[in-house]
Amino acid sequence: MQVAVKRDKPEVVAADVLAVFLRQEKSLAAKSVVAQLDARLEGRIRDYLESGDFSGALNSTALVRTGGKIGAPRVLLVGLGKSDAFTVDVVRQASATAATAARRLGISSLALLPPACDLAPVEVGQALTEGALLGLYTLKRYKTATENDDKDNLREIALLASGNAQRALENGIQRGQIIAAAVNMARDLSNSPGNEVNPSYLAKQAQEVAARTALRCHVLDAAGMREHGMGCLLGVAQGSAQPPAFIILEHAPQGTQEPPMVLVGKGITFDSGGISIKPAAHMEDMKMDMSGGAAVLGTMQALAQLRYPRRVVGLVPASENLPNGNAVKPGDILRAMSGKTVEVINTDAEGRLILADALAYAVQEFKPAGIIDLATLTGAVVVALGSQATGMMGTDKAMMERLRAAGDASAERVWELPLFEEYSKQIKSDFADIKNVSNTREAGSIIGGAFLKEFVGATPWVHLDIAGTAWTHENRAYIPKGATGVGIRLLITALEAMVEQPAQPAAKATRPRAAARPKTRAAARSS
Ligand code: BES
Ligand code: ZN
Ligand code: ZN
Question: Which of 352, 413, 435, 453 is an active site residue?
């Protein structure tokens, strides 16, 4: 999909549909761009507002034929809702509503008139672009096309620029394209079936991300894991025929060697529960149990393309969780890379096992400034918070406050759960240092967090349990049913807030740079 700025006035723009955004309680302000457009349309827009045929409620729409009075044959009115509830996410949603409505109409070109508001033009451009590209997301790869399919002809989205907003809008479009591409890549990975997206596939994907950016990629195979003493990851992986992979992506602008922020994502490409097998109902959804890993791959790609100025490392321990004759059993004891021994009480609590080794690897190999992990870790967080907020726990108040603020700003909200010392008593084991679940079902998400905390030492660390937010069962404005791609916009927002200067996109950031640039050492080694 092509998104670009056009300097045309709305009344002359050549597009199949011109979308105009309107607030719920406002009549057309005299002399506003929309009022001028309406004058050309002999009051047709005002007619819709005054008759109540169009309410202006958020994501409401009305299609108005223009009868040759302006360049575009149709104007699509899109509601922004009430003024006091206006945020950048409203723009994102309304843009998705316009884009998906245009797709349903079968038209090929859509022009968006950016809403008049207090947001900076770069923010408006980014939100309009993200909304449209995220809202139009589909995964068609596994469906055979038939003649009865609705035709998707939409090829071009133009943002109409007036005055001197063009450069800022273009910047916003570029940022929006980078971020939406990362989120949609993560959605593809989570929505795709486990027989395609296995650990080797994730590793290959990471190498492709590195090849089209300046990231370094290195992948540990089972032998490499053994060398590092990753007994927990190997323990989870031993029950399946597919080999595990431990993915390392590094963004080191100008070879910076500062202590990095390390992002860790759970990469279970299918979670059957293992020997502690899950019930059959909805087990198919467990192909999404690598959504944390997908978010880390997407975030790393976007950070590289946005030329993020600080060093960031992404780690994805990847494995299946299946119950073959060699599988780890309840009562088995595994030794983590940190040296701690873990009694496996429930093989379905496998995420914390593979993360244990990834967290220890992060601490030992990188001496990080901070660690943020993302994992579809517990069903309990779905019970606690549903799909509206990610569960957050951690050891660093300042990092958690940044993530909370970034969650509000990105509309990928997080909510803190406590990690009081007392919870840790519940994972003491009679036979090993710790066990992977507690004796009761109480505070299930917190127990998961308390387990992970055993492996971060003094490193500032935040755990994000995305089990409830990584998947949606209903279509939302810019999140179609299925994998949401949650975490990427949250992390980018939080990481950019950590540097004074927000990252600027590279001049040609979306073009693959592999050919133009010599490969970095690690990328060359691993490909
Ligand atoms: N992958 C699941 C958690 C999950 C549940 C993700 C629902 C997405 C949606 C995880 O590995 C798991 O099975 N956790 C167990 C932990 C329990 C055994 C302590 C759970 O939540 O039941
Ligand atoms: Zn599980
Ligand atoms: Zn799992």
Answer: 352
Given this model, what pLDDT does residue 513 score?
Answer: 40
Q: Is 367 a catalytic residue?
A: no
What is the rounded CA–CA span in Å between residue 485 and residue 493? 15
Q: Are strands 390-394 and 461-465 parallel, antiparallel or unpaired?
A: antiparallel
pLDDT band at 505 (very low <50, low <70, confident <90, very high): low
Q: Identify the residues whose C-beta falls under 6 Å from ligand 1.
A: 271, 289, 346, 348-351, 376-380, 382, 437, 444, 467
Q: Are 11 and 23 in contact (CB under 8 A)?
A: no
Say yes or no to pLDDT of 395 above 70: yes
- Ligand 1 centroid distance, CA of 400 (Å): 23
DSSP 8-state class, residue 30: T
> Residues 128-185: pLDDT tens digits?
999 999 999 999 899 998 888 888 999 999 999 988 899 999 999 999 999 999 999 9
Which residue has a Cα nearest atom 22 of ligand 1?
A: 379
Please check whether residue 523 is in contact with residue 208, taking contact to mean a CB–CB distance below 8 angstroms: no
Name the token pair of 362.
């992060």
User: To the nearest whole number, what is the mean pLDDT of the chain?
Assistant: 94
Burial level of 212, CB count in 10 A (0-12/13-18/19+)? middle
| Interacting residues of 214 by C-beta distance below 8 A, sequence separation 6+ | 251, 304, 513, 517, 520
Q: How far is the CA of 433 from the centre of ligand 1 (A)?
A: 22
pLDDT > 90: percent of the chain: 90
So what's the pLDDT on residue 500?
A: 61
Strands (E), 257-321: 261-265, 267-271, 312-321
Q: Say how many Å lie between the CA of residue 390 and the centre of ligand 2.
A: 18
Alpha-carbon distance of 311 to 296, in angstroms, equals: 14
278 is catalytic: yes
| Contact between residue 437 and residue 447 where contact means Cβ atoms under 8 Å apart | yes
**Of all protein residues, whose CA lies closest to atom 7 belonging to ligand 1?**
379
Mean pLDDT of 431-440: 98
